[in-house]
Amino acid sequence: MNILALILSILMICAHINILQPDGMEKIYKDDLEEALAGASTENSTVIIAVANQAYTEGDKPMLDIFLDGLWLGEGTQKLKDHILIVAVDQTAYDRCKFLNLHCYKMKTDGVEFDGREKLFMSDDFIKMMWRRTLLLGDVLKHGYNFIFTDMDILWVRNPFQMLMLNESLDLQISVDKFNGDEWSENNPINTGFYMIRSNRKTIALYDEWYGQKDNSTGKKEQDVLYELMRGGAFERLGLRVRFLDTLFFSGFCQNSNDFKEVTTVHANCCRSIKAKVHDLMEVLHDWKKFKASSHDNTTQFQWSDHTACLDSWKQQ
User: Fold this and answer.
1) FRET label pair with 154: which of 8, 44, 50, 193, CA 20 to 30 Å apart?
2) Tell me: the pLDDT tens digits for 154-167?
3) Do the Cβ atoms of 20 and 26 come closer than 8 Å?
4) 155 DSSP β-pair partners
5) DSSP 216-232
6) Residue 240: HSE in the Cβ half-sphere, 13 Å Cα cutoff
7) Tell me: the pLDDT tens digits for 229-274?
8) CB 39, CB 103: distance < 8 Å
């Protein structure tokens, strides 16, 4: 090998490693996931994770674009984009993510190929994708990263970190479909579309047990299995401290927050199709822009538009 070829080889290796630490030492990542997490992480090793497939990244107004619009229009949310890692299920979603200059990771599906079509709620492909997501998120914890997981059909109209308890004694803070008034009550109906979780031995054990139920849970989505584990005493047995998030702040279509001055996230839950979610989330953005343009003196005049498309989505086959 001549000198020029040797130099080119060294440059290619350095380009692959790509990052120098402050002390000048080269940082070598053990895998692609660790590199992606490090790129999006905050200083305290926390990442915001959302999952996208082709159906969420194509169309006149893709769900991914609506999600980003929410961050742009929200209060104190613009800079959070730097800490979001988009996990792409397919190549189309990955390409769109890279085009938008976001932090992106292509999820390895281990021989299970998900096409770009919409995965209707509770369809077989929907359930498979939810379980594959659970496996990946458990791997994130094993890499030593805390994370907020957010479904992409959630608008962040305020910075949720300001409403989440950041002390290390809390292992999991999770959203609910309808809040029962007690943020420590396991009678709350959990929703795995939004939660914050810390990486520690207890949460890793939870994810291992959770994913371990997959083959014994035919026809159940991963959220149902986690709820059953909770009701069966798994949280207490593992020593987990769990907080259930009030829908006044972390709201959704199942239970609206009626306080525009307090609402932090709006989730298009209780909705079956992407088309319906897109329609009604656009209405939410319209309502939010009207609120921001007002004097805010009297919030009682502000109400969310009816989620008509999502209500109608359950009537369609």
Assistant:
1) 44
2) 999 999 999 999 88
3) yes
4) 266
5) G-TT--HHHHHHHHHHT
6) 28
7) 999 999 999 999 999 999 999 999 999 998 999 999 999 999 989 9
8) yes
Closest to 196 (Cα-Cα) out of 232, 243, 157, 249: 243
Q: Could you tell me which of 148, 175, 239, 167 has the C-alpha nearest to residue 201?
A: 239
Which residue ranges form the domains of the chain, and what is each CATH number?
29-313 (3.90.550.10)
Give the whole-angstrom CA distance, residue 57 versus residue 65.
8
Distance between CA atoms of 174 and 188, rounded to whole angstroms? Answer: 10
284, 292 Cβ separation under 8 angstroms: no
Contact 94, 104 (CB under 8 A): yes
Residue 13 region, left (φ>0) first, then alpha (ψ -120 to 50), else beta?
alpha
Distance from C-alpha of 92 to C-alpha of 145, rounded to nearest angstrom:
27
